[in-house]
Every structure is written in structure tokens, then in C-alpha cells.
Amino acid sequence: MDITLPLDQMTLAEKLRVMEDLWADLSRNEQQLESPPWHGQVLTDRDERVRSGQETFINWEAAKQQLRDRLK
């Protein structure tokens, strides 16, 4: 099946809604979803950076505020 969306005519909200709908459909059968090997490597690398002190965590509210500040 070949599906073409008019992406150049869609608003950002419409595009996000399509992505959300696709993800909701895919995740209904999450046992069939297999992460590619590089996902595991990314998680391993991030864990190593946290353990070594190169990276730290911040709470979600602080992260959202940082993003909002960058977009001002």
C-alpha cells in the first residue's frame, strides 16, 4: 500500500496528530516492536556518561523551562 500525505500542506498540529495516531497504532502490539541494536548502544553510552559524571539528570519541569527559555 502506497500512502502519500500532503505534508507541505499540513499544519504542524496535523503532522503531530498523524505521528501520534501512527505511534498509538504501532504500540498496540508492542511485543511485535523490536528496538534496533543501536538503541541499546545509545542507552549504554548514556549510562556510562551518567556514571562518570559527564551527564546529570534534571527534573522534567526544569527541562521544560530550559527548552522554553531557549525558544524565546
Short synopsis of the structure:
By secondary structure, this protein is mainly alpha-helical. The protein has three helices and no strands.
Task: Walk me through what this model shows.
The model has no long low-confidence stretch (mean pLDDT 93). The chain has helices spanning 12-27, 37-51, 60-70. It has 72 residues and is mainly alpha-helical. 58% of the residues lie in helices and 0% in strands. The protein contains three helices and no strands.
Report mean pLDDT, rounded to a whole number: 93
What best-fitting shape do the alpha-carbon axes yield?
A: flat
Along the chain, the helix and strand elements come as HHH
Please give the number of β-strands. Answer: 0
Q: In whole angstroms, how far apart are the ends?
A: 42 Å
The class by helix and strand makeup works out as mainly alpha
> What composes the largest sheet?
none
| Helical residue percent band | 55-70%
Counting DSSP H or I runs of 4 or more residues, the number of helices is 3
Which runs of at least 5 residues are low in confidence (pLDDT < 50)?
A: none
Roughly what fraction of the amino acids lie in strands? under 5%
Taking all Cα atoms into account, the compactness measure Rg is 18 Å
